[in-house]
Design brief:
This protein is mostly helical. The protein has a single domain (3-225), classed as Serine Threonine Protein Phosphatase 5, Tetratricopeptide repeat. Helices cover 60% and strands 6% of the residues. A three-stranded antiparallel beta sheet has the order 1-2-3, with helices on one face. A two-stranded antiparallel sheet has the order 4-5. The radius of gyration is 18 Å and the shape is elongated.
């Protein structure tokens, strides 16, 4: 089977009780090149760059009173704990309760989108991500997440558009570059896919994200040799 037919985007667990995020696990070959993210228990390890991006909030969050900030933190921790335990229905309910209390919280909408996506509700997830962007226009992670939701439905052009929006906000967003490359490869744009991956590789190396750099190197090798003679 051709390499591009084996590319899949899946949702993985978050960094703990504070952060939910979407990243990409790329299954290029079921037996040879599954790209996992190392976990401790059920918790995915993220780089400091990803954690900082995911935690960024609209300016108005800083205007909350001490009691409101405490309540916000507690509600988020409770919802994320349920998510980490795999109780997605309860996590969704808690995020919705959170958003009734803090309806303009972009991060809360983003987290809800993640839970919905993990429940294989891509359209609902996209709506939640759009709400996050409505309250925080420069939300690169949310645009990347929308792209992944579209890609999960094989809506390649729409996915690529969202990845590009993420990259307009943050040109050094290595994960969005990697996701873009997978869509480009899926749509028979091999040269552009390779170029995007090479940019992602340079970024991951500059950020000392060695595991991600190694993953991208493996993808590049697979793509560059995918059309070689005798490849089944």
């Amino acid at each position: 089977m051709k390499l591009k037919r084996q590319l899949k985007l899946v949702f993985v667990q978050p960094l703990g009780c504070i952060t939910l995020s979407i990243i990409t696990t790329i299954l290029i070959s079921p037996s040879v090149l599954a790209i996992p993210i190392k976990t401790a228990g059920n918790l995915t390890k993220y780089s400091p760059v990803q954690v900082n991006q995911a935690r960024q909030q609209p300016q108005k969050i800083a205007q909350l009173s001490d009691n409101e900030q405490t309540e916000r933190s507690q509600l988020l921790q409770q919802a994320n704990f349920l998510y980490n335990q795999g109780d997605l229905k309860a996590a969704e309910e808690n995020f919705r309760k959170f958003l009734k209390k803090f309806p303009e919280d972009a991060f809360g909408h983003f987290q809800l989108g993640n839970v919905l996506f993990y429940q294989k509700k891509p359209e609902e997830a996209i709506s939640a991500y759009r709400e996050a962007i409505r309250f925080k226009s420069q939300y690169a992670l949310a645009y990347n997440a929308i792209g992944m939701a579209y890609a999960s439905q094989s809506r390649w052009e729409e996915a690529l558009t969202e990845y590009q929006k993420a990259l307009e906000i943050n040109p050094n967003y290595g994960d969005a570059l990697t996701n873009s490359a997978l869509v480009l490869w899926q749509t028979n744009k091999k040269d552009k896919a390779v170029s995007s991956l090479e940019k992602a590789l340079a970024i991951f190396k500059s950020q000392n994200r060695n595991e991600k750099a190694n993953q991208v190197q493996q993808i590049l090798q697979q793509i560059k040799t995918a059309d070689a003679p005798n490849l089944s």
